[in-house]
């Protein structure tokens, strides 16, 4: 039903990352990343706003930290603040098209590139 085609890698990580964000993150974190997604109110803990990650890190986007949180596999169970946020590394790894760790890392890296692009100036 076209699902496989939607998962084809983009040549542009920013475009792929935005698509991945809208598919995997926007329901909780909101379309603009401020934590106001349509299901945010139903969660036990409000989702983080994602547009001030750099500001909270002395103006530097914390790339490695964000990558680790998005992946989630090497952090403690509550690293995301609640068990409601999926461990995307596991989710991407278990998808039918995630044939390799390289594929998983490409998805995560694209998402990190997008998150860096939405930082408030």
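^ structure tokens above, recovered residues below v
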């Amino acid at each position: 039903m076209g699902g496989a085609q939607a998962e084809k890698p983009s040549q542009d990580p920013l475009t792929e990352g935005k698509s991945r964000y809208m598919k995997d993150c926007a329901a909780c974190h909101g379309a603009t990343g401020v934590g106001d997604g349509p299901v945010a109110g139903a969660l036990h803990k409000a989702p983080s706003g994602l547009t001030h990650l750099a500001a909270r890190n002395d103006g530097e986007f914390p790339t490695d930290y964000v990558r680790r949180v998005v992946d989630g596999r090497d952090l403690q169970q509550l690293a995301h603040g609640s068990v409601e946020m999926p461990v995307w590394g596991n989710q991407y790894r278990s998808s039918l098209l995630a044939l390799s760790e390289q594929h998983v890392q490409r998805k995560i890296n694209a998402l990190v590139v997008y998150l860096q692009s939405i930082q408030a100036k």
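The radius of gyration is 14 Å.
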